[in-house]
Design a protein that fits this description.
Strand order of the largest sheet: 3-2-1-4-5-6-7
Radius of gyration: 18 Å
Strand content: 5-15%
Distance between the termini: 39 Å
Bound molecules: nicotinamide-adenine-dinucleotide
Oligomer: single chain
Number of strands: 7
Largest sheet: 7 strands, parallel
Structural class: alpha/beta
Helix content: 40-55%
Length: 268
Amino acid sequence: MDFSGQVAVVTGAANGIGRATTLAFAARGAKVVAVDRDGAGAEKLAQEIREKGGTALAVAADVTKSADVARYVKAAVDAYGQIDCFFNNAGIEGKVMPIAEYDEAVFDAVIGVNLRGVFLGLRHVLPVMIAKGRGAIVNTASVAGITGTPGLAPYVASKHGVIGLTKSVSGEVARQGIRVNAVCPGPVDTRMIHSIEAMINPGDAEAVSARYQSSIPMGRYATVDEIASTVLFLCSEFASGITGAQYVVDGGRTATGGAATTVGSPRN
Ligand code: NAD
């Protein structure tokens, strides 16, 4: 896949999936705009890309704030003239807690980043793509956008919302040359999954991790690079017929309901 001459904007770029995807776009020739509320982290990543000979700009922005979103879009257009690929990815996990006890402010924060942030990204990036008559967007949903997870209801609700936005908006812009898809990672080896493990059992997060990974047919969490590859595929010409889709990258867990360890697994 070659993204030479193209501009890719990534939110949540300073860490985890966003960082790996920004690096992958840059390695394949894209000019990248790394957006994160952790401005120092985004700048460090942009510097790393420039040192390797790539072209990168960092923007410190909070995706929940309309003015910040307008600012990162303007920075991308001012620097590079267009946005070809947009990875609408920043997200937070909130707390692991039953809804009967869930903190209202944390609910608002989860919906604010994961759903409002994705909406604002679409709201501000789409006019730039519509003006050019081309573009590819990938929103980060999750397998939590497809199935429920007791204890993580606000996160699950936000990710179901991301899939709703993706399906609906894909139809609004399909004839304007723009594709909008969602990537649905299962657990990925980043800070976020380790935070969830620790909230489930603060005394033994390792045991939660082992149990969770053994319920995945592939027997392990996905890597950030596996998610990045899927995002690049969905932004590439190889996916020219794909829009409004949800791509699950979860080692087979959703397909099997986590039951693959009963038959045919080397763990038996
Ligand atoms: P991470 O915590 O490693 O990275 C998230 C990045 O988003 C951080 O750099 C953080 O600073 C940034 N961010 C958070 N809130 C922001 C805001 N308001 N404005 C701008 N930036 C903000 O997490 P990750 O695992 O890389 O998660 C990336 C995306 O993948 C999220 O949407 C997450 O829900 C989703 N996801 C993760 C997993 C997993 O298991 N790790 C699984 C499915 C989906």
